[in-house]
Amino acid sequence: MFDSNPNLIQEPVNRPFARKVPLILMHDGGGTVFSYHCLGDLSRPLYGIYNPCYHSGGSWEGGIPEMARHYVDLIKESVPKEDIIIGGWSLGGLLSVEMAHIMAGDLEHNVIGIVMIDSVYPKIMQNVSGTKIVQHAMQWNEHTRQETRDAVQRCFSEASKMVGQWTLPTWGGGDDEATTNGVTAGANANGHATEPKAPAPPPVMLLRAQEAVPVEGDGTSRVDVSRKDRLLGWGLYRDKFITQVFDIPGHHFSIFTSDDRLKAVTEKIKLACYQLESKAAMRARARGL
Description:
about 290 residues; AB_hydrolase_fold
């Protein structure tokens, strides 16, 4: 694991990239950010936040909200004050939703968007019946130490429990309401600004694995219950919550496991970030900034 948290994974040295919005990716269910170190050049600062409990063996008594608040604090302590993009693979994308809600209205670290990497709407299981769910069996390299296996498995188990207990944040805003730094501004009958309402979500880019996880028999992996839905179930959370979907090769657990797939996911992350920057610039121009 790494000493610094957030861990600076990529730091572009070419000056043309100096103003690119940093991307901060939260760990997956296993608690590590190793997969993000396998990505190709994103041409922007890339940070990874790992689960501090990976080493300590502790747990988050406050669940996803407590974890998200801690990670927001880490960002405020370590990342320059500027626009940021947050996201992550699987659990990392879910954490980003909670974090974006916490940071709504933050003028120092303005979340201009979220990049989810195959993050499935967690409450989809409540809307499924008659489907045989097969638990994924962890695949280990023969050189993986037992202590690493134990730590990852412990983090996965804890993450599964927390996600099951998580109440996702409630957003305000609508398609016809303008947002500034995530806060929806209203107006009275005279056109004068009113007090800010509940925060509106930032744009969300979803990278969706095209294949299903191979399982024995007629079962379905938990992450594939909504695989045929391009939104991976997020339409049940909020209408138009997902701004754009990018298909990527492989299944949920193979996204970072070959050069071809790594190249593809790198390119889609770059494109997603570019789209988020463009949307943020358009919003700024509309506000006359």
